[in-house]
């Protein structure tokens, strides 16, 4: 059988056709590179591709199948990774000038796991510099466009990852989420994005932004594809002491399940003045669909929600200030040429190598960690973070999951000149999950003015299976969005 548009298939469908000999790995990989060649000039999802290597890996996989060898769980599935996830021998820049020529010297744990399960990594996606931003505008390389409207942002910081899936250049893409950087672009681009519990996936090989908040996440066309990927990349790791040793369930066993009797909380603090009325209508339609599926939806309260954004923008920059101190022009990365002594080398290298947003956050972080302000800002923010976490514990003792919007607006125009504060407020509905360390998933809930709008579920720590169950049920009830053709 001949498939003219293999790129339209889900990861599950591609794997099934590969295993049943309907498609070869080479055919699958070539079809996605053909799609990339056709649409990438419009979207600019990627910063680099590894075409020759990936095709060679596909040939070896075909030979492996021919010889009757055991195949991995992701055999035949092309995958992309974000530019802050290390891969041996691959340029990894975190979309920053300060790392423009850095080559990874080892595989991150997630990349190692993908390779072990026969996934074929075909490229590296664009992002905001060091994952700081919500538009991809801070990338050193270029801006990415939203496949639904090329004049609009794809979201960020994993904007390239989300756009690559929405443009059907790849079925699964890995991103990272520090304050919403998987879920917000998933919402803007009309795909599914899961941020797991902090500690569910190893961060070994993920370039650090804010170590107590960062988490690798998955973007895909369907909840099923997210579950398939999670089965591989989740789990304990000797190289990351923050990863839980909890057993990883088979997430695909929670697909196609009845959610009758499931209790869903609607936090009143998330339906605030300023939330787009049409976005609220999308949430209301999702609530109606969930009730029709037999779920119980009740109002709940997360009273410290209003403090989430200021808390995050004290803690995250503080951690970034510490983490990014390693980029000094001495050990690796960009080095300024015109310097007179060690101090001027540091200053010139970091001034020239970092972009405006990264420098802004480093300065904020250094300020709140300084001797005179540590107690007033950083210590106080840590206390508020504890209160936010307790809010979630209290509510999730009463309900199974929490339902909220993902973002207060649809994707805005690339030309919009938003202030840093306005951009920070775009994260108002996503940040709390990172502060509390709970899992959260975004899936398309509908369209507003022909632009996708995401619905967010947040759950108990290490209970991704319930999120997958309810998100899959809602996805099947309301139907998947038809992704842009880009012809």
From TrEMBL:
The active site is at residues 82, 157, 181. Keywords: ATP-binding, Ligase, Nucleotide-binding, Protein biosynthesis, Transferase. Its EC number is 6.3.5.7. GO terms for molecular function: ATP binding; glutaminyl-tRNA synthase (glutamine-hydrolyzing) activity; transferase activity. GO terms for biological process: translation. Allows the formation of correctly charged Gln-tRNA(Gln) through the transamidation of misacylated Glu-tRNA(Gln) in organisms which lack glutaminyl-tRNA synthetase. The reaction takes place in the presence of glutamine and ATP through an activated gamma-phospho-Glu-tRNA(Gln). Belongs to the amidase family. GatA subfamily. This is Glutamyl-tRNA(Gln) amidotransferase subunit A. The gene is gatA.
């Amino acid at each position: 059988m001949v498939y003219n548009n293999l790129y339209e298939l889900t990861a599950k469908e591609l794997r099934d056709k590969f295993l049943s000999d309907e498609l070869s790995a080479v055919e699958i990989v070539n079809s996605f590179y053909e799609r990339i060649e056709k649409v990438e000039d419009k979207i600019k999802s990627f910063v680099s591709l590894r075409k020759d290597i990936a095709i060679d890996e596909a040939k070896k996989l075909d030979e492996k199948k021919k010889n009757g060898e055991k195949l991995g769980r992701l055999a035949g599935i092309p995958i992309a990774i974000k530019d802050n996830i290390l891969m041996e021998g691959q340029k990894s820049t975190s979309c920053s000038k300060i790392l423009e020529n850095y080559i990874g010297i080892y595989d991150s744990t997630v990349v190692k796991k993908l390779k072990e399960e026969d996934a074929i990594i075909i490229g590296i996606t664009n992002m905001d510099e060091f994952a700081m931003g919500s538009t991809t505008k801070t990338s050193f390389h270029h801006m990415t466009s939203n496949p639904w409207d090329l004049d609009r942002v794809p979201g960020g910081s994993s904007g390239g990852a989300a756009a690559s899936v929405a443009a059907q250049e790849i079925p699964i893409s890995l991103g990272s989420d520090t304050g919403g950087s998987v879920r917000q672009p998933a919402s803007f681009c009309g795909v599914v994005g899961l941020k797991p519990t902090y500690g569910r996936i190893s961060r070994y090989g993920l370039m650090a932004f804010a170590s107590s908040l960062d988490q690798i996440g998955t973007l895909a066309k369907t909840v099923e594809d997210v579950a398939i990927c999670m089965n591989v990349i989740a789990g304990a790791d000797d190289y990351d002491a923050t990863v839980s040793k909890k057993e990883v369930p088979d997430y695909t066993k929670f697909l196609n399940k009845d959610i009758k009797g499931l209790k869903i909380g609607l936090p009143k603090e998330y339906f605030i003045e300023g939330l787009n009325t049409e976005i609220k209508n999308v949430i209301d339609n999702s609530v109606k669909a969930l009730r029709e599926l037999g779920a119980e939806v009740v109002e709940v309260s997360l009273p410290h929600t209003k403090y989430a954004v200021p808390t995050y923008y004290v803690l995250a920059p503080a951690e970034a200030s510490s983490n990014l101190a390693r980029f000094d022009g001495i050990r690796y990365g960009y080095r300024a040429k015109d310097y007179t002594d060690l101090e001027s080398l540091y200053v010139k290298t970091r001034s020239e190598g970092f972009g405006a947003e990264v420098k802004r956050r480093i300065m904020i972080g250094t300020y709140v960690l300084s001797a005179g302000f540590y107690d007033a800002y950083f210590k106080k923010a840590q206390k508020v973070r504890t209160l936010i976490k307790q809010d979630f514990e209290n509510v999730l003792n009463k309900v199974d999951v929490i339902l909220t919007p993902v973002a207060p607006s649809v994707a805005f125009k690339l030309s919009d000149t938003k202030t840093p504060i306005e951009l920070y407020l775009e994260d108002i509905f996503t940040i709390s999950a990172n502060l509390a360390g709970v899992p959260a998933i975004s899936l398309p809930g509908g369209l507003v003015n022909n632009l996708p709008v995401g619905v967010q579920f947040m759950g108990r720590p290490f209970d991704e299976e319930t999120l997958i169950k309810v998100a899959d049920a809602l996805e099947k009830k309301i139907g998947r969005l038809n992704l842009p053709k880009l012809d």
